[in-house]
Amino acid sequence: MRSTFRICVSRAIATLAMIVVLAACGSKHSSDPARSQPAPKRIAIVISTLDNPWFVVLGNAAKEEAQRRGYTVTIFDSQNDPAKESAHFDNIVSSAYDAVLLNATDADGSVANVKKAHAADIPVFTMDREVNSNSAAVSQVLSDNYAGAVALGQNFVEQVGEQGQYVELLGLVTDNNTRSRSKGFHSVVDRYPALKMVAQQSADFDRSKALEVTESIVQAHPNIDALFCGNDAMALGAYQALLVSGRAGKVKVFGFDGSEDAITSIIEGKLTATAMQYPKIVARTVAEYADRYLKGDRQLPPRVPVAVDLVTNANASKFAAHARSDRD
Amino acid sequence: MRRSLLLMPGPTVTNEIAHRRAYALLVWVAGLAIAWTLFPLFHVRYSRAGNDTEIESREAVAVFDAQRFAKAFWTNKLLALSDHATDVGLLTAALTRDPAAAAQQYGRRTGLGGRYFYFIRGEGRVRAVDRRGVWLSIAGQSGTPVLLMVGPVFGNALRDATGFADITGFNSIDFDSFGAELNRLAENEVQPKLQKARFGTRVRIVGCAEAIDIDGGMRLQVVTASVDYFP
What we know:
The complex is a heterodimer of chains A (328) and B (231).
Chain A: H1 2-31, H2 33-36, E1 42-47, H3 53-68, E2 72-77, H4 82-94, E3 99-102, H5 111-119, E4 124-127, E5 139-143, H6 145-160, E6 164-170, H7 176-189, E7 195-202, H8 207-220, E8 226-229, H9 232-245, E9 252-254, H10 260-267, E10 273-276, H11 279-294, E11 303-306, E12 309-312, E13 319-320, E14 323-324
Parallel strand pairs in A: 1-2, 1-3, 3-4, 4-5, 5-11, 6-7, 6-8, 8-9
Antiparallel strand pairs in A: 10-12, 13-14
Helix pairs in contact in A: 3-11, 4-5, 6-7, 8-9
Chain B: H1 2-6, H2 13-38, H3 52-59, H4 66-79, E1 86-87, H5 88-97, H6 99-106, E2 118-130, E3 133-137, E4 146-149, H7 157-160, H8 172-194, E5 202-214, E6 217-230
Parallel strand pairs in B: 1-2, 4-6
Antiparallel strand pairs in B: 2-3, 2-5, 3-4, 5-6
């Protein structure tokens, strides 16, 4: 009798277990619509610094495009600090994000972070700032800084003339963009031996530092004719220093980026020219590539240069902040 | 005998319990297996592209020699494969008709939104020489002037026009250095020959060009890679 009872209990429990399992299976497909959709994949956007408006546009454009494609997005600010970027990647790997859109702090130093994600099977796509690896990142979408700087160099010679004194303000010296812009610019102006560079100094792409650096340079070299700056923030900082020293309007200032302030300043005659980069195009392309990769596309190009355009007083009205009327 | 066994009295109560326990256990195991399959406690994920050692070995490349690379490209691609180039008369006619369509049909560009460049070859007659370079007239064409430029060469026409140089495998600084060295070869090895051009001379050229819109009219500006004069 007791044995029969135990048998019945065992059968009842087994049957109940089967019912629970089958119910769980059924509910996955029918009973709970909220659970029928897989959880959205997550994309991490790591930006070198959100202090610079250009990178804010880059990050927000990438975020909007990734969200539009159905991803959950988190933006990380590295504050131009490779150590912070590394900590972000530790977090990203341990949290098992599905992809990373990276605006790197350091062309060489960031490679280890990209490899860290790669080893964890998290694909990385770089935006605007290159990492010096041909295999760690899936794809690198970069402004054609060299070509933009060549165009600026040619305009520089037209505006300043084939002789004179000038100063170059460099960005972050560990960044390939800094090197590409400087090399492109010098590939032109160095062909004119009477154009003398009297000072070359880094201001880390930072407006305040550019102001300080320019103040001291102008004291040492009061007769300069022009300043070539590796980005618009530094160009605007340099212009402020010239304003303070009473040299504004006498020294031609060239930037690079195409920020709203720079475009306005070119129209007002404060800056002479800049090179318009297209952060929204870069960001959207990278988000699209990440989406395609996560959906199985393995034919993405490893490097994609994005053209930049020369902006001068003659054509500045065609441009808005970080964009052109016919090219967003 | 078998029949007799089947007709034997059934198993003992103990055996029956054992069988039923085994049945219950089987049902439990099956249930757990299904549950495990549907709701695994952990996932095994496989690395995508090998290990870091593999990456390291792929990264271990020699320092890029832009000058040497450019020289090899100049000889083995740009000049050796010039039969892939578009006839300059065909291109100028197409540019005169519809520049956008000509760009789509004959132009090449690298990346997003860049300029179109054209890999060209063909014959013409020198109709003028000035400080900008040598102006050619192309038989049967009058709409789009052709200028063989002299002086400093900038830009990436030589690098990007042929489609033979692929940015894959370069970092951007190396790729730009390679382009700059090609420009230097054009200045040093070809432009001295261009200086010998005289009005009326017939020339055969290979080059890389860009179509420039000047006040609504197109001009084909050529970085010349090869020039030969003939009667």
